[in-house]
Design brief:
The structure holds 2 protein chains of 2 kinds. Chain A is α/β, with parallel strands linked by helices. Chain A is built from 15 helices and 17 strands. Chain A is 39% helix and 26% strand. In chain A, helix 1 packs parallel to helix 3 and helix 13 runs antiparallel to helix 14. The chains are: A alpha/beta, B alpha+beta.
């Protein structure tokens, strides 16, 4: 049996970041990936954050296969055929130090794996890890699906993604439930660069993102998105599984309904669909986060439920957790303390970082939307009606118009409900 | 765009082994809602009315794992295909 210092299960951003930082600290490190090469099994919406990536590979933008730097973020609420929009644009984000880029994961993850290989990481592909290997209570490696496929390690880092098979077996992942995961589907729609840039008012090479709430998910908890790639759009929709089951929508019908919305239709018109993808997103937040360590094991990325749905951040949480896990693994191996207590240093560092702080801050959010479903259904409708009335120029006096708007608002949502909603939102998001 | 046309765009390295199992076909008989037939983004699961069982088109599985979480009876034993098999994204 071949022995390593560190075995990383899974070649996504979390696992590759972990491997890179372990290898840089001098550890003999291997990544075990089930796809043909890292990337071919991996899906996300498409936003990669500069700060977290730069911490793993300095100046990555000079050689990484990126799509477009994001200079504009738009947010929209859909209500029927109506759209309310807000956005922020800063052309400075087209230059270093950037803020975020759109990426396609097959290309990006492959590149990240190559950086890991350059740092000395060995990558074993087309191999599924089936379980941890134990000696007594101690984790001493992994069992893979290959004949004579046992590999030894001092530390195993679980970066196996949302389905977390191994972590679950090791008691390090909670049972996923329909109210803690969202199912997302996405299409890659090819468009000529010039047409794409015109439609999004972008200078050559610049990128934009749009997040859409409300009827983009038929009022279910979730979001839809449109991201600009070099010569394609990533368009997708994700909804919490529980309401999806209850309302009997299919994921593809949700996506088709989104594509038919007047605001979206014009953005994708004439484009050619190149790929259809699906992925689960862990939405359990802080309350669903497992214990992040045990003797000889650390958990990172989606496997640890590290997703901030509100700010659509995930890849950065994955990479930051991976980097810390790689560093802590090396530190524990060097000090010889691989006990649960010794490895708790990772959890401590995570709790001191934005990763767990942000998840903690939004810990009430999931429950809030469950108990206040109006936010995704009634409020977009109220806002759209109010805008419609406000912008309509007719013979109604402005004073009368204001009365009409207030009357409409209270018809759709009683005053008591409004107060409770505002207080609830403040508690769940701002507090 | 129809789902079948979209699935046609996906690249697979299809295994001869089925990586999905229905644990107990009798459970599906008493399941009224059969959410697996709707929630799977690739429509892998279909109710076969003649044979009175869920048919599983594992070859089209996009490996998301939704079925495993969504089956109200935990009756779908879904795992990854063997190494190197299954979906192979072109863009991701």
């Amino acid at each position: 049996m071949e022995n390593f210092d560190v075995i990383v299960v899974g070649g996504g951003p979390a696992g590759l970041s972990a491997a890179l930082s372990a290898a840089k600290a001098g550890m003999k490190t291997v990544v075990i990936e089930r796809g043909d090469y890292p990337g071919t099994k991996n899906v996300m919406g498409g936003v990669l954050y500069t700060k977290a990536t730069e911490a793993v590979v300095p100046d990555f933008w000079q050689s990484a296969p990126l799509e477009r730097p994001v200079i504009e973020q738009r947010y929209g609420f859909l209500s029927g055929d109506e759209t309310i929009l807000a956005g922020y644009r800063d052309p400075a984000w087209a230059q270093p130090p950037y803020n975020a880029h759109t990426v396609l994961r097959v290309k990006f993850d492959r590149w990240l794996a190559q950086q890991a290989e350059k740092a000395g990481v060995m990558i074993i592909t087309e191999t599924v890890v089936e379980d941890l290997l134990y000696k007594g209570d101690n984790v001493v490696g992994v069992r893979t699906g290959r004949a004579e496929g046992d590999l030894g390690a001092k530390v195993v880092i679980l970066a196996e993604g949302v389905n977390a098979f191994i972590a679950k077996k090791a008691g390090l992942a909670p049972q996923m439930r329909p109210d803690t995961v969202a199912v997302a589907v996405k299409e890659i729609i090819q468009l000529p660069q010039e047409k794409l840039e015109d439609r999004f008012c972008l200078e050559p090479g610049q990128g934009a993102t749009i997040e859409l709430f409300g009827d983009s998910t038929q009022g279910m908890m979730g979001t839809a998105f449109v991201y600009t790639n070099k010569d394609s759009l990533s368009i997708g929709v994700g909804a919490l599984l529980e309401p999806l089951i209850r309302t009997k929508w299919t994921p593809n019908d949700l996506l088709e309904a989104l594509k038919a919305k007047p605001y979206v239709k014009r953005l994708i018109q004439g484009g050619e669909t190149k790929e259809y993808l699906a992925h689960l997103i862990p939405e359990g937040g802080y309350n669903a986060m497992p214990k992040l360590h045990r003797q000889g094991v650390l958990v990172v990325g989606d496997t640890a439920m590290l997703v901030n749905g509100l700010n659509r951040e995930g890849s950065n949480l994955a990479m930051t957790s991976g980097k810390m896990a790689g560093e802590v693994a090396a530190q524990c191996i060097q000090s010889g303390d691989l006990s649960d207590q010794g490895m708790s240093l990772y959890e401590q560092r995570m709790r001191d970082s934005f990763v767990v702080k942000d998840l903690y801050k939004y810990r009430r959010l999931g429950r809030f939307f469950e108990t206040h479903p109006h936010f995704l259904k009634v409020y977009p409708e109220i806002a759209a009606n109010a805008m419609h009335l406000y912008f309509t120029a007719d013979e109604t006096s402005k004073k009368e118009r204001q009365k009409q708007i207030m009357k409409m608002v209270f018809e759709k949502r009683a005053k008591g409900g409004l107060v409770s909603d505002v207080f609830g939102a403040w508690r769940a998001i701002l507090k | 765009m129809k789902l079948d046309d979209k699935l046609y765009l996906v690249r697979f390295n299809t295994d001869t082994l089925n990586h999905i199992k229905i644990a107990d076909a009798a459970v599906c008989l008493k399941c009224q809602d059969k959410p697996c037939t709707r929630i799977c983004p690739a429509h892998v699961y279909d109710w076969d009315d003649e044979e009175k069982r869920i048919s599983v088109g594992y070859e089209g599985c996009l490996e998301c794992g939704t079925c495993r979480v969504g089956c109200p009876y935990g009756n779908i034993l879904w795992g990854y295909p063997r190494g190197g098999f299954g979906v192979s994204w072109k863009n991701g």
